[in-house]
Amino acid sequence: MNVHKGARTTAWSRAVIVRRVCDEGQPVRLVAAAFGLSETTVYNWVRRFDAEGEAGLRDRTSRPARLRAQTPQETIDAVVARRRERQSGRQLAQEFQLSTATVSRILRPAKLSRWKDLEPVIPVVRYEKDEPGELIHFDTKKLGRFSRAGHRVTGDWTKRSGGRGVGWEALHVAIDDHARVAHVQLLADERTDCAVQMLRETVGWYEEQGIRVRAIMTDNGACYRALAFRDACAELGIKHKRTRPYTPRTNGKAERLIQTTLREWAYAKRYDTSEDRAAALPGWVATYNTERPHHGIGGVTPMSRLAPFRNNLLQDNRCRANLPIPSRVPMRALTFSH
Questions:
Q1: Cβ distance 195 to 172 under 8 Å?
Q2: What pLDDT is recorded for position 161?
Q3: Which residues, in sequence order, are CB contacts of 205 under 8 Å at separation 6+?
Q4: What is the 3-state secondary structure (H, E, C) of the chain?
């Protein structure tokens, strides 16, 4: 017998209750107190024993004597079909002469209860360029400046501001699509001048690592749509790609880099001022490139993934600059250091 875990009595204890009342003549009040039951419950078990004998002391099913009428399968299929045509629950209830609760019970197993369930699932498209420099992802993130530690690290919610009137600064990030080598800078804002400055310095920094930038991808921010940014890309011989509007996943590598940077640098420790936070950024970027394992490239570091391409990339850059190509370049001489 499967006894409910919260049951006060079992078939055996009910028999004891009946025996004490019927055979031994003990008062119902005392028997109820001994078993922690109400007098009404004791009377019920005695009455069931008198009517059915020992069978009346066994557990009974909780299934109702009469169930509600089941909705025909044809109606269920029709409701689901109409729901896929963007009909609301109230419309379906009115059309099929059902209650809204019944419509909800039909739609829940079909996983059509919410409007977003009616939208087609967009397949996840993952891509990776074959060589470093084929595509560099750019993005920005505005950060508040502060002159003292705020409530996030001090826990003092009575002084929530980190210093009023200090202003803002912008985190500009760039990451290579293949090797995931990142270049990150803190600049004054997210406007066109800073975006162009970031572009030029990023291209120069990647060239120092032996990477020739051929294309970049950005979102549709105003600084990236500016004519000055377009002209800078043309001057550097770089193809500029922009993501589809309202589709940040297209530039997901840069979005993820911003999340990682904020979690492991900006909010990883206590900084007394924003200047202290900015001073810690170059060291974190160096760790990210040379020491931190990257899940997206099999747990290796970005610079280690760049190494197999560095000889060819350096030679290609020397050809373009009309510089002599050494017959053999020791790998130790190409090791990146900060």
A1: yes
A2: 53
A3: 183
A4: CCCCCCCCCCHHHHHHHHHHHHHCCCCHHHHHHHHCCCHHHHHHHHHHHHHHHHHHHCCCCCCCCCCCCCCCHHHHHHHHHHHCCCCCHHHHHHHHCCCHHHHHHHHCCCCCCCHHHHCCCCCCCCCCCCCCCCCEEEEEEEEECCCCCCHHHHCCCCCCCCCCCCCEEEEEEEEECCCCCEEEEEECCCCHHHHHHHHHHHHHHHHHCCCCCCEEEECCCHHHHCHHHHHHHHHHCCEEEECCCCCHHHHHHHHHHHHHHHHHHHCCCCCCCHHHHHHCHHHHHHHHHHCCCEHHHCCECHHHHHHHHHHHHHHHHHHHCCCCCCCCCCHHHHCCCC
CA-CA-CA-CA dihedral for 306, 310, 316, 322, to nearest 10: 130
Q: Domain segments of the chain: what residues?
A: 11-57, 73-116, 136-331
In sequence order, the β-bridge partners of residue 138 are: 174
Taking the C-alpha atoms of residue 236 and residue 200, their distance in angstroms, rounded to an integer, is 8
pTM: 0.62
pLDDT digit string (tens) for 28-53? Answer: 999 999 999 999 999 999 999 999 98
Can you give the pLDDT at residue 330?
36
CATH code linked to domain 136-331: 3.30.420.10
Residue type at 120 in one-letter notation? P
Banded model confidence at residue 324, pLDDT cuts 50, 70, 90: very low
- What integer best gives the mean pLDDT of the chain? 85
Return all residues near 170 (Cβ < 8 A) that are at least 6 apart.
140, 141, 142, 143, 186, 187, 188, 189, 190, 194
136-162 pLDDT, tens digit each = 999 999 999 988 876 666 667 666 555
User: 113: which 2 tokens?
Assistant: 């209860």
Question: What are the tokens at 181?
Answer: 């080598």
